[in-house]
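User: Hi! I'm a student and our assignment asks us to look at how structure tokens line up with a sequence. Could you show me two examples?

Assistant: Happy to help. In each example below, the sequence comes first and the structure tokens follow. Example one:
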Amino acid sequence: MCNSFSLIIADLLVSPFTIVYYTYTTWTSTGFIGPICVFAFFVISSVINKFLMSPVVQLVFSQERLEGDFRFQHVQFRSSCESAAFLRCGQAELKKANEKLLQLVHVQHRLVFSQFPLNFSVYMAAYFGSILSYVILAIPVFSGVYDHLSPADLSALISENAFVTIYLISCFTRLIDMAPEVTDIAGTAHRIGQLLEQADSLSDSEELCDTKTSVSSIGFSHSGATVYMLDNVSVSPPTNSANGQVLFEGLNLKLEIGVNILISGDSGCGKSSLLRALDGLWPVTEGSIDCSLSRSSSEIFFLPQKSYLTNGSLRQQITFPDYEELSIGKEQQLIEYLKLTELSHLLERVKSFDFPVKWNWYNILSPGEIQRIGFVRLFYHQPRFAVLDEATSQMDIEMEKKLYTQCIQMKITLLSVGHRSTLRHFHQFELNLTRLHVEEKEDNIVTWQMEPIENKLYSSNL
């Protein structure tokens, strides 16, 4: 936009002065008929261009908006790539990106066809202006005003007057030629103005509560089916595996349906890294990890600390990464899950599950609401096994209790990572990762220990 504006600003500033000067010169040479014809030509051309410019401005605005949405989706996906990878949502996001690309290409096609008549009008005005200058000169010549002049003097007078008239018309045609640049500037400025208005209206809020509550007795049951089998597993960061850095080694673990396990330990000891290895995002340096369930949303569901929010309607947000068509007829079930997570106000705000919202969900929802949206997804998919990576860290303990209780009631087996002691009430075993410093290796190693959780607040049916 700034480049286009720099190309026309000089002509805009100079044109008023040149128009006034050559209007006076034309009037003294051709009489009042010359300036009137030139001004009439300019008015008619401007009116025609005004009608041709209006759809172009709207299409330029739409093109800028769609280009911004298309680029933003790629940036958002890249910035939240790990959360997206846990959800295995590549195909779902690819479909949305392709839809945005097709919309953008469709608008660009319409813009090209809309610019054709505008450019045609601009060029016709330039060519007709040259013809008009000789028509203006022909009027006094054929009306007998210059009959007293010799052919040589008449030729000199026509040459002099032609230059003045043509230059006056040229001043107007330069303004008409600015029409394409003006449409680009107007469309882009409209988009920038909308973005500035939206930026002023955005407000972020956070829900950070720290209250304490008790947990009632919860009954656990399990079928004993193995989900993951870890045999002598060692994990290193992919970028440092060649340097020999090992986060933890020799981990033997069996994850079964019905057995809830809590992973605890200091920050940076490899809790989230273990989840990456379970999901196949990180390779294991030694040992093996076998999974008996498919990675569909109905079998295994990963819930990271910050859920990945896609673009689209509330229904798309809840059913993600599955397609929203699968939830048709389940509206009452979705409403119950929203009430359970205290997110009913979102439905009241959008009026309908399928309302096509234009905002960015990350700007609308607080960190606690983002985590609760993740649990709404979890309840909707109802997987047999769920992996929760500090999925309640931005909630108060009462909400944490309510959501974990619902998971138990829905018979969702949980593998949780967390620091709160209240999470122990919902799990039978605790896998504790401890970092130890070894002076001989001048490095830290992580040891692991699996222990049953002795909690009298629940009854275990193991």
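Example two works the same way, sequence first and then tokens:
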Amino acid sequence: AGEFVTEDYCELIARDGNHQTVKLRDKETLLLGRGDLTGIDDELCSDHQIEVFADVSSREVTVKHLGVHPSVAGGVTLHSGEQIVLGESAVIELLPGQYKYCIFIGKRLVNHSLFDEKEV
């Protein structure tokens, strides 16, 4: 059956029904904005609105703003090129007041031999 190991993981949990929760891999950069990954089709949201980088061991997510219109991260308005480091439960808004995500960092059991994941 294989052996389970505990693994930290990070998700950006969608706070409303008009976009999708996004899983972040540890120490990988991900571009978020309008598109299939988020389910956002708002023309005001750039395809690459923000760049996120999760450092799960330090329980931090770095958010860098790339889009034309501002984003809000941890209550701070970000303009193009600006970045901020956030912790668990901080809120990211791809556009001010819209497309809100809450940072969640947790643990899960992973059975590598079965490629089966269970949240704990």
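Here is something you could point out in your write-up. The two ends are 19 Å apart (CA to CA).
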